[in-house]
Amino acid sequence: PALQGPEKKEARNDRTRETVERMFDFEEVSKRSLGRYWRDRTGAEQQEFVRLFTALLERSYLDRVYEHRDDKVLYTGEVSRDGKVEIRTKVITAKGTEVPIHYRLMKKDQTWKAYDMVIEGVSLMSTYRTQFSQKIQSSSYEALIDDLREKVQQ
């Protein structure tokens, strides 16, 4: 409640960002989103990609979190496989719509961190991997980075 209202947007975003950073492994998210092209990148290129992709995700989704503040999240179960776990939830929107969202997690440094979200059966990382791969194949990795920089600046 202390972060309600437009004048508190920056503080609200900072708090949301802190929470999300504790829950998600953005390096793993980036690595999986870039797919087979990850291993061809230098360490500096990988770090830049993680920074840009994290910023893109933040710009794309941060405000949406606040828009859904009145939604209810129900835990519906979990599936464990190969040292990873998928936490299954169902979001019930303020309008009564049910949206299944599954979080895929892996253990890193003794902490479970999310590396993917599956929303209504569609993997967020697979979607980005397809887009990134198409851009690299039709242009270049550098063109993808230029696009990410431009989107982050907008």
For this entry, give a set of tags.
50% helix; globular; alpha+beta; 5 strands; 154 residues; five-stranded antiparallel sheet; 5 helices
Notes on the structure:
- By secondary structure, the protein is of the alpha+beta class.
- It is built from 5 helices and 5 strands.
- Strands 1-2-3-4-5 form a 5-stranded antiparallel beta sheet.
- Strand 3 and strand 4 form a beta hairpin.
- The protein is globular and about 45 Å long.
- DSSP helical segment count: 5
Average the pLDDT over all residues and give the rounded result: 92
Cα Rg: 17 Å
Low-confidence stretches: none
Structural class: alpha+beta
Q: State the helical fraction.
A: 40-55%
In order across it, which strands form the biggest sheet? 1-2-3-4-5
Largest sheet data: 5 strands, antiparallel
Overall 3D shape: globular
Strand content: 25-35%
End-to-end Cα distance, whole Å, is: 29 Å
SSE run: HHHEEEEEHH
How is the topology of this model organized?
Blueprint: H1 9-23, H2 26-34, H3 43-67, E1 72-81, E2 84-92, E3 98-108, E4 111-119, E5 122-123, H4 124-138, H5 141-153
Antiparallel strand pairs: 1-2, 2-3, 3-4, 4-5
Helix pairs in contact: 1-3, 2-3, 2-4, 3-5, 4-5
Overview in brief:
This protein has 154 residues and is α+β, with helices and mostly antiparallel strands. It has helices spanning 9-23, 26-34, 43-67, 124-138, 141-153; strands spanning 72-81, 84-92, 98-108, 111-119, 122-123. Helices cover 50% and strands 27% of the residues.
